[in-house]
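Issue 218. Parser rejects a valid record. Input:
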Amino acid sequence: MDTSFIALAVFALAVAVLSSFDRRTKPLERRLARLDQKVDLLMAHLGIEEPADPRMAEVDALLAQEKKIAAIKVYREVTGAGLVEAKEAVERRMR
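Output the parser choked on:
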């Protein structure tokens, strides 16, 4: 009886901590997205282009070899993107 109560208490505490963390990160993610957009607008206004990472050629070479999963993995390493974002970006590069 005591161990199940302790396990339930630990689970409830973990859920509370995780939900608190999510509430704090959402506003920061939105603010970061706005800052990214502003930096992109400034760079476009000044005519500055971000230099292409040389490893993106590796992504293209993997796509030419029809190694989509490996290309997604390299894309994630280069950009730090999440799995879904990387998959969508690699699929756009395939077109």
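Fixed in the parser; the record now loads. The radius of gyration is 21 Å.
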